[in-house]
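Pasting as-is:
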Amino acid sequence: MIERMNESNQQHRIREEVEEIQKAAARLRKYTPQQLLQWGLDQYGGKIVLACSTGAEDVVLVDMMSRITPSPQIFFLDTEKHFSETYKTLNRIEQRYNIAVKRLKPKLTLEEQETTYGDHLWQHDPDRCCHIRKVEPLREHLRKYEAWITGVRREQSPTRSQAQKVEWDQKFGLLKLNPLVDWTWQDVWNYIRTNQVPYHPLHDVDYPSIGCSVCTRSVKPGEDLRAGRWSGTNKLECGLHQ
């Protein structure tokens, strides 16, 4: 009986939070990314965190956050299968903005994953690989926070076309801010060039979306921005934004 009451109270609290978020979303719809970030910091203080993959959208948000607060909380999901350029870009970001980005690693090492699930899990079961190396570490980290910030844009893919600036993240159970959700790819690069933001060098050789080296290829002319991710499969997302 007590367990059912606790579960009912929790569901009621979540419904109230979702209703408040929906009201906030309508009110904040016309905020600029910087205004939205300031709102998030004002509302949540040390309980809000930025996800940084070192992609173009994320480095824009790092630059914006660093102009608003001297000590932004930022994390990077280290799957241990990133391009070497990704790690170098992360180091450049830390040096440029004098910040420390929290590296999140999976509980399983690559060797342990291979022992349990076989060689090259990303080839025969990419969903499981992403769950182990991205989703699980993220879920554990987000338990410490009440809100997180992402570089999701509607233009990126059909799976992100309905994203809002402010929304309830049902999967992880907290507020989600997408400050660049209505920006175009050109908007992103205008900001990077105008503000001389350090960016991932693979963007210069047809990698608009960059994930793990074993699951990412360059994009051909006419393909969409995320066509190089899990190419040859039906997979469109790693599980963080589904």
